[in-house]
Structure formats: structure tokens, C-alpha cells
Amino acid sequence: QTDIFYCHTHLTFRRNSDTLSCYKHIITEHGRALWPSFCGKCGAGIGSTLERFPELQVINIGTLDKPEEIE
Q1: Are 47 and 59 in contact (CB under 8 A)?
Q2: Long-range pairs of 13-22 with CB within 8 A, sequence gap ≥ 24
Q3: How far is the C-alpha of 51 from the C-alpha of 24, rounded, in Å?
């Protein structure tokens, strides 16, 4: 498992002074957008929001402190 999906209304990002950044990327195969999120300080990928499922937030599981606790 490399990604997890959460409804964005149930998700809170905690960060110190770092800034969460994103950009719009259009996938050429189908023309829909996704917005990758990343740390504005170090560039580490956090996850993505998908145009097709805007209510969901994809989280890269490697960004979690305790990924083994995800079911």
C-alpha cells in the first residue's frame, strides 16, 4: 500500500513553520487535473487532490509518522 484516501473534511495537516504547496497538473491521457501537494521547504511529496474525486485527499503513506497504524 503506497497511498491512502481520506475525505478532505476529515483531514487536518499539522505543520510547524513549513508551507504546504501545490500546483495544477493536467493528465494528457484524459484531460483531468490533479493537484500534487508538497512541502514548500524541502519539496517532499505529501499527496494529491484529484479533479475526478475532489472530496478525497490522496496521502502518500510514506509521509506518515506511523504508517503501520493505517488499516
Answers
A1: yes
A2: 13/46, 18/42, 20/46, 22/49
A3: 10
Cell of 43: 519539496
Asked whether the beta carbons of 7 and 54 are under 8 A apart, the reply is no
> What pTM was estimated for this model as a whole?
0.66
Taking all residues of the chain, what is their mean pLDDT, rounded to a whole number?
Answer: 77
Confidence of residue 8 (pLDDT cuts 50, 70, 90): low
Could you please report the per-residue DSSP string of 1-68? --EEEEEGGG-----SS--EEE--EE-TTT--EEEEEEETTT--EEEEEESSSTTEEEEEGGGSS-GG
